[in-house]
Each structure stands twice: as structure tokens, then as C-alpha cells.
């Protein structure tokens, strides 16, 4: 059986009725398994994760995008997370017995349908975007909803599908195919967004832009490859976070990202109090983290799987803000249910 995962992000994190109706749209499609729903009031965003064979998955994604467009009004939307539409981004990820090239075909099929049937401007991204000058999500989304009324009219920013005019209520959306990504936030003992952003610039691959004495800009890369990061303040928690996307966990694993943020935070007089996983995580990432911390603490690593995961949860502070239940957050555990 070919399996793909879909992780759409919707610009609503507080209204349970809206979130529930999007959930119902996804679950209305036979052959699709809803794995996780992760709402955030502060970000005003909900991340859904579901999986199945490719056609049912993109059918469910289409219905969810349609429902979100009916219920979410971007003209009144406020939230900490960057966004450009009611369905901000909708990636497809190959899971089993399917390659990236075929996953791209399904992403393009979904994007075309959304553009043509729902009349929402759609941009392709990552592996589905042939134009490498605009395959990066953060580049596409720059300017966000408010800036897109002008941006969409620029010659280089015509949508791949749908009208070249921003929908006032629904905004625009980004659809693509990508490798597995971990969305991960590190909690700080401060409410300062400028401090959180400084730490984010220290660690993210793109680093920061500085100017020399002549005013010429120069880029100074951060310390972590395959990592995107920003700083923000989450009022519901009363803290600032360094919010990261780990785009290749073979290059920068979860535990290395955490340790580096701890180190950079300490240099700026800030303490890390824990961390938060958004969505799901592969079992291997949790086991690698657990073994890393056990070894660092001079404890045996040849223990059972549960003990290794417990070590990861404790050392990363994953239960700092809310209980962390491995059976609800690890992909392999959910797929076995």
C-alpha cells in the first residue's frame, strides 16, 4: 500500500467549532486516518496530521481547504504565526512505498483542483515547485496576508494555479511535497520577542544580515543546518519561544537543536525551561534523543524503548507546558492503532 501524510496548517487555533468542522471534513473521506490535531491559541493556528493512500488523502485535503475557506475570515485574523491564507500551507509527505516524484504529482493535482474549483490562489513549494527562486515557504509567504494584495500582482509572483488576485476572506495558500519536517518550539524564561529572535538568528541556517561600515549588507549564517527559526511570544503560556522547523533531522536532529538553543540562550542571559512538539514525530527521532541524553548523563543506553523515550521527554522538557503522551505523538505508534 502506498502511504502519504498530509499536514495542513489552518489559520484558526481558538474556535473549537471551526476546528471541529475542518476535522469532520477530513474524517468524511474513507481510507484516511486522522492522526493528530494540534491547535494553538497564541499562534491562532491548528496543525492537522492525517495519512492514507494518495487519492483519499488529497480528497480529504481538498474538502478541508474548502471548509476552512468557508469558515475563516483572513480580513480579521490575528496571530503570532506568519500566515497568508485560511489554509496557510498544505504539504504532502511520502511515508511508504511511494517516492517523492509521485508525491509531487499528487501535490500538483491537489493544487490545480483548489485553484480551478475553489478559485483560491495557490503557490507550489518545495519539491513540487520547479522555480527554485520561490520554492522556499518563507520566501513565498514573505509579506504575509496583508502584503499579498500587492505582491500577487508582481510579475514574479503570479500564482501557479487560481486567480492572480488575493481573496480577501480566504487569502492564498501554498501546496507542495516535502520531506518529513519536525515543528519544534523551545521555551524561554522571558517574554521578550527581541531576545527570542536574537537566539533564533544565532541558530537558524539563514542566520542574520548585518551591514559593514559602508552600509553593504552581508549574511552571517547561524550554527544549525536545515533549521528555520523565529522568535515569538505566546500569551497563553506567558513566555517567549524559539520556534523552529527542522527540515532534515539527519543533518540536525531534535536533541542537537535543543542543545544549541540552550547554549545560545545562556550566552544571552536566558534560560530554557522546556520545549514543545507541534504535530507528530518519528520514533527514531525520539530514540536518538533519548540515547543521546542517557549517554550524556553516563547512564546505560541499552534499556527498553519506553525508558529511552522517557529520557527524551524529561531531558527535552516536552511535558513543560502540557502532558506529553508518546502514544499520541509518535507516528509509528499512531499508525499501529
Low-pLDDT segments, ≥5 res: none
Tell me the span between the first and last alpha carbons. Answer: 17 Å
- How large a portion of the residues is in β-strands, by DSSP E? 15-25%
Number of helical runs?
11
Q: And the CATH topology of the largest domain?
A: Formiminotransferase-cyclodeaminase, Chain B, domain 1
Average pLDDT, rounded to a whole number, is 95
Shape: globular
**What is the name of the CATH architecture of the largest domain?**
2-Layer Sandwich
Domain tally: 2
Structural class determined from secondary elements: alpha+beta
Task: Describe the structure concisely.
The protein has eleven helices and 13 strands. It is α+β, with helices and mostly antiparallel strands.
What does this 3D model show about the protein?
It is a single chain. This protein is an alpha+beta fold and about 325 residues long. The chain is about 35% helix and about 25% strand. The chain contains eleven helices and 13 strands. The chain has helices at about 15-25, 55-70, 100-115, 135-140, 145-150, 195-205, 255-265, 285-295, 305-315, 325-330, 330-335; strands spanning about 5, 10, 30-40, 45-50, 85-95, 120-125, 175, 180-190, 210, 215-220, 225-235, 240-245, 270-280. Strands 1, 2, 3, 4, 5, 6 and 7 form a seven-stranded mixed sheet that branches. A four-stranded antiparallel sheet has the order 11-12-8-13. It has a two-stranded antiparallel ribbon with strand order 9-10. Strand 3 (about 30-40) and strand 4 (about 45-50) form a beta hairpin. It is globular, with a radius of gyration of 20 Å.
